[in-house]
Amino acid sequence: MGTENPGRPAYPGRPATTPFGAPPPPNVRPFSSTPPIPGSGPSTFRPTTAPPSQANTPFASSGPMAETEAPGFQPRPPSTFSNPSAAPPPALPSYGSPAPGARNFQRFSTPQFTQAPQGPPARPPTMGQAPFGTPPAALVPGAPPAFRPTANVPAVPMGLPPQRATYAPPGGSVPQLPSESVPSVPRPNFQQSYPAADPSVPTGRPTVPPLFPGYPNQRPHAPPPATLSQSPFAARPAGDVPAPVVASPFQTHQGGYVQPHTVPAPFGMPPRDPMQHSASGPPSNAMYGLMEDFNSLSIGSVPGSLDPGVDSKALPRPLDGDVEPTSFREMFPLNCHSRYLRLTTSAIPNSQSLISRWHLPLGAVVCPLAEVPEGEEVSIVNFASSGIIRCRRCRTYINPYVTFTDAGRKWRCNICSLLNDVPGDYYAPLDAMGKRVDFDQRPELAKGSVEFVAPTEYMVRPPMPPLYFFLIDVSVSAVRSGMIEVVAQTIRSCLDDLPGFPRTQIGFITYDSTIHFYNMKSSLTQPQMMVVSDLDDIFVPLPDDLLVNLSESKTVVETFLDSLPSMFQDNVNVESAFGPALKAALMVMSQLGGKLLIFQNTLPSLGVGRLKLRGDDVRVYGTDKEPALRTPEDPFYKQMAADLTKYQIGANVYAFSDRYTDIASIGTLAKYTGGQIYYYPAFQSASHKEKLRHELARDLTRETAWEAVMRIRCGKGIRFTSYHGNFMLRSTDLLALPSVDCDKAYAMQLSLEETLLTTQTVYFQVALLYTASCGERRIRVHTAAAPVVTDLGEMYRQADTGAVISLFTRLAIEKTLSHKLEDARTAVQQRIVKALREYRNLHSVQHRLGGRMIYPESLKYLPLYGLALCKSTALRGSYADASLDERSAAGFTMMALPVKKLLKLLYPNLLRIDEYLLKPSASAQDAESTMKARLPLTMDSLDSRGLYLFDDGFRFILWFGRMLSPEISQNLLGHDFAADLSRVAFSERDSEMSRKLCALLQKIRESDPSYYHLCHLVRQGEQPREAILIMSLVDDQIGGTSGYVDWIMQIHRQVQQNA
Ligand SMILES: [Zn+2]
């Protein structure tokens, strides 16, 4: 497939149906966000700031410059820059008056997704008929099963029914009454949706239409067990609940009531995990078969106290880390892996009223380039002559959920139901089942994730080469920190591993009070440095040779990097002309786009974009002026971010200072260009070198998608209304992502367009159009289906805490930009309260809930993660609890994290490791089990005779108990074993134990490589240093923050109010 067309004079025009047919928007609102969700009422979270795009410009463009018509990959910066505004080179902005919105993307026609002939892109146009009036063929019994929910799913073993436990204070004195353990109370509402499996439940319930008309035989009560045993949906058939009722060893609170009801998992899905808690004793066998619709927590008397309370040990904790939801794929085996797409609930509500009762965010978290799950692959499909098969109307890409009819000559779009012709080249006959005979050879029909090779219609210029441009602060503080040397060495060591050889381009600018350009022409033996000191009228000297082909100029580049640290070693310049240097970098990069890596050590002090010290007036804190400190002060940064995005430049900011550098402003560059912030406060080469080296190397060598745009489509009747993360929104639903990689995730909220959804299934399709480093233009497509439900209980059952928390986190951080921190925290708590109150109301009719707190199994960790979020660096405490920069950096980082990584940051791992280290011949299995034995994050977990490892995905903290065997300390710390640990750097020592520990740390780092875990040492009682661990113990009540128990009590009290 021709993807590069260097000699091609012009690129194809835009036939109405080609993907790039849309004109650029007349106006760009780069920072507009999305409107509040209709129907959600006054959200407690900050609604977005700008109105949505009008329908007349739904396809704002992005992407490579159409008019520049780069004939090849030679960087060809504009020839004259001495007066850029007078003689404008192709599409270069002038910077005299940065006026957001004044510049638009007119010059940049876009590799955007295809325009639908009418209506907004993510959904089909409004049609006279209801496209979903006729169920897709696959849903009609007997019709060709386009998706075969039972086809590839292993049968779920019909083993023991799940167990669950009701927790109670250990000292509680009221034994569970066996009689109450027997399900006996009919629950009309519940039965309407899910008849109880327990035979003792009255059977005279009204018959209700199946929730899943397409899956009648999957109803738990319907088929005989024999059939069920072969069905993947038959985890809990009706007859398998032995429900032996014996006295439970678990004691309940004073109410003594144990919710006994046994309920099959919805759709016969595998049983939910029994609630695990290492400290609460084994779940009772007596509870066997008594799995109920909800979990509960006894809120009663704490032993030895008159205060009502809850036993801390009984509280649920995510000690297994994030467990990716599986129900998504169990219901629809052809769905993409949840690593790519997670829904906050995989049961989509059918009505506005259901949504409003759900209270949690309804939406998705997408990580389009997530690392491929083990044992899977993303097939690359090249349609060649037939072109990529897409729906003529809504532009959905062909996927496993489309259905073929008319002997294989037509296919029906699963998103909008339109019947499309099958192109001649793509035709294949159908078998007796209505399945294409070539099904097995077609990954796009068999897999939820696939990558299409894009033909030339998907490009408006040849795919860009990977390009890395470095903007390096060389002022005195940068020199003294040692940062320059580490950066230069790391870049040099990665040169052979940069993606895209032999097309990769590279360039450098350094700056202090002046700007230094480097000519790296391959014919030179040494780079030539050119200094520009006129900061008001930036021009680029020698525009042709500042950006060079790495393979041609490698020697010059290496010479430059070798000499860079010494070039400035005596620099005493304290100024930073960051803004002008940034503009210069944009000028150099604008022809091609690429990745801009910024290394900033001081507050920008000269030229445009200079910033002033903010936040030193404590009177501002706690007032309405405080949130402004968390937003960029100077519009220059937002405008620059808009311009960078426009030119396909993604910026990553590395910040190093121990002083205020206004990351709120500088970080904007990364936020709106799909980039990332790396923050190394008070960087010192001696202690932070490894972290910087690892993270920079990963940034340089990880697989990157260039000049990308992303869109998520969904079925008729629903719509994504707001997007949250690091990107710029172009048009209503197109995310501009100049560079993307596996470490970036995006969240979006969903709303119903109509009051009632009449379909039984909704489909989602994420499409990322990008240029691969190899130079091929590709479209990565992830498709998933989810059932539409009429039952609120089902929404809760199918909830995904990880996705909910990802959205919560992004919404809360956004809220801190316009509200006090406290307001953001309250909003988190309030939504949890509302959700649990609604949930309680759902069950209080049929159950005597007493003082118990109840919650769905799926959301058992929600309160704890909510608490952890409120205690995170971005949200915690007041101004004194985290510096402005620290908070901003944390916020930018958390906005981009994939679910798993975010959850680990919120609730880190705490492991006891001294026993493992002492074991004479510890096996790999021992290491494995040590890594899995996670402990609750409380002081109570720490034994002063132990050695503990804390791991939040960004750093390690090794905690040495006061009574720890001296042998261990000596082995691990050598002569420093008794020293003040704040002065001791962790390193491998000459002992078996030390090697063992380093191997363990290495193993963890390899399993979680996005950031480097720097190892901090802490000794019990050594203040103030120990605080770095103590403050991270989420469960504890520290420094005015709630502990887990108080938090639960607060939530419980509020849930009961007006319940
Ligand atoms: Zn369609």
UniProtKB/TrEMBL annotation:
<feature type="domain" description="Sec23/Sec24 trunk">
    <location>
        <begin position="463"/>
        <end position="699"/>
    </location>
</feature>
<dbReference type="InterPro" id="IPR006900">
    <property type="entry name" value="Sec23/24_helical_dom"/>
</dbReference>
<keyword id="KW-0653">Protein transport</keyword>
<feature type="domain" description="Gelsolin-like">
    <location>
        <begin position="933"/>
        <end position="982"/>
    </location>
</feature>
<dbReference type="InterPro" id="IPR050550">
    <property type="entry name" value="SEC23_SEC24_subfamily"/>
</dbReference>
<keyword id="KW-0472">Membrane</keyword>
<dbReference type="InterPro" id="IPR041742">
    <property type="entry name" value="Sec24-like_trunk_dom"/>
</dbReference>
<feature type="compositionally biased region" description="Polar residues">
    <location>
        <begin position="106"/>
        <end position="117"/>
    </location>
</feature>
<keyword id="KW-0813">Transport</keyword>
<dbReference type="InterPro" id="IPR036465">
    <property type="entry name" value="vWFA_dom_sf"/>
</dbReference>
<protein>
    <submittedName>
        <fullName>Protein transport protein Sec24-like At3g07100</fullName>
    </submittedName>
</protein>
<dbReference type="GO" id="GO:0070971">
    <property type="term" value="C:endoplasmic reticulum exit site"/>
</dbReference>
<feature type="domain" description="Sec23/Sec24 beta-sandwich">
    <location>
        <begin position="705"/>
        <end position="789"/>
    </location>
</feature>
<dbReference type="InterPro" id="IPR007123">
    <property type="entry name" value="Gelsolin-like_dom"/>
</dbReference>
<dbReference type="InterPro" id="IPR012990">
    <property type="entry name" value="Beta-sandwich_Sec23_24"/>
</dbReference>
<dbReference type="Pfam" id="PF00626">
    <property type="entry name" value="Gelsolin"/>
</dbReference>
<dbReference type="GO" id="GO:0030127">
    <property type="term" value="C:COPII vesicle coat"/>
</dbReference>
<dbReference type="InterPro" id="IPR036175">
    <property type="entry name" value="Sec23/24_helical_dom_sf"/>
</dbReference>
<dbReference type="InterPro" id="IPR036180">
    <property type="entry name" value="Gelsolin-like_dom_sf"/>
</dbReference>
<dbReference type="Pfam" id="PF04815">
    <property type="entry name" value="Sec23_helical"/>
</dbReference>
<dbReference type="GO" id="GO:0005789">
    <property type="term" value="C:endoplasmic reticulum membrane"/>
</dbReference>
<feature type="compositionally biased region" description="Pro residues">
    <location>
        <begin position="21"/>
        <end position="39"/>
    </location>
</feature>
<feature type="domain" description="Zinc finger Sec23/Sec24-type">
    <location>
        <begin position="388"/>
        <end position="426"/>
    </location>
</feature>
<keyword id="KW-0256">Endoplasmic reticulum</keyword>
<keyword id="KW-0931">ER-Golgi transport</keyword>
<dbReference type="GO" id="GO:0090110">
    <property type="term" value="P:COPII-coated vesicle cargo loading"/>
</dbReference>
<dbReference type="InterPro" id="IPR006895">
    <property type="entry name" value="Znf_Sec23_Sec24"/>
</dbReference>
<dbReference type="GO" id="GO:0008270">
    <property type="term" value="F:zinc ion binding"/>
</dbReference>
<dbReference type="Pfam" id="PF04811">
    <property type="entry name" value="Sec23_trunk"/>
</dbReference>
<dbReference type="GO" id="GO:0000149">
    <property type="term" value="F:SNARE binding"/>
</dbReference>
<keyword id="KW-0333">Golgi apparatus</keyword>
<feature type="region of interest" description="Disordered">
    <location>
        <begin position="1"/>
        <end position="239"/>
    </location>
</feature>
<feature type="domain" description="Sec23/Sec24 helical">
    <location>
        <begin position="800"/>
        <end position="903"/>
    </location>
</feature>
<keyword id="KW-0963">Cytoplasm</keyword>
<dbReference type="InterPro" id="IPR029006">
    <property type="entry name" value="ADF-H/Gelsolin-like_dom_sf"/>
</dbReference>
<comment type="similarity">
    <text>Belongs to the SEC23/SEC24 family. SEC24 subfamily.</text>
</comment>
<dbReference type="Pfam" id="PF08033">
    <property type="entry name" value="Sec23_BS"/>
</dbReference>
<feature type="compositionally biased region" description="Polar residues">
    <location>
        <begin position="51"/>
        <end position="60"/>
    </location>
</feature>
<dbReference type="GO" id="GO:0006886">
    <property type="term" value="P:intracellular protein transport"/>
</dbReference>
<dbReference type="GO" id="GO:0000139">
    <property type="term" value="C:Golgi membrane"/>
</dbReference>
<dbReference type="InterPro" id="IPR036174">
    <property type="entry name" value="Znf_Sec23_Sec24_sf"/>
</dbReference>
<dbReference type="InterPro" id="IPR006896">
    <property type="entry name" value="Sec23/24_trunk_dom"/>
</dbReference>
